[in-house]
Amino acid sequence: MSIVIRDVREHELDSILALNNAAGPSILPLDAARLRRFHDTAEYFRVAERDGNLAGFLVGFGSGSGHDSSNFRWFREHSGDAFFYIDRIVVASRRRGGGVGRAFYADVQSYAELRYPVLACEVFVEHDSDPARLFHGSFGFLEVGQHVMPEVDVRASMLVKPLCSHAWVHQRYGGELPDVPWLLRPRAGAPLAHRPTGT
């Protein structure tokens, strides 16, 4: 019954595409080409397994990446700090409420706080988003604005969570984290984390 969070495997992309496009109106649909671009460029692309089955996935990009979503650009324009952006998290409908989302957020925060001062994401305001907004609020996210996504005409609540461990980690280790096995590395081909000067 345990949840395992691990890097995506290329042969899983078709299953991830189906999972994404069955998630309902709170998740934007994907096509195979865009999912492939995520696979090739995302700094963080991990899946959850429960009982040996795919239970969900999370895709994230550092603020120094060339990610092209309008929400990512909004954070770039409105953020004074570097940030790590959660583009999407999808949990299989049969697994919702079973801790998969919390396991993902614990994992992505552990990754991001070593490299970025802020975690950023959005939740759609429409489509009965109260459970998602409550989930993010209980995880320490705060709304810093709203943005209407021009490509789909959907309003998003733009959320950030300051990562309090980042300042200590950056002060102690700078841009060179220790070479220890448990420390999750950026995926191959992903851009390195942007480090703001003076922090």
UniProtKB/TrEMBL annotation:
What keyword terms does UniProt attach to this protein?
A: Transferase
Q: Matching InterPro entries, A to Z?
A: Acyl_CoA_acyltransferase, GNAT_dom, UCP028520
What is the protein named?
GNAT family N-acetyltransferase
Q: Which domain of life is it from?
A: Bacteria
Gene Ontology molecular function, alphabetical = acyltransferase activity, transferring groups other than amino-acyl groups
The UniProt entry, under PROSITE patterns, shows: GNAT
The signal peptide stretch is: none
User: What's the source species' lineage?
Assistant: Bacteria, Pseudomonadati, Pseudomonadota, Gammaproteobacteria, Lysobacterales
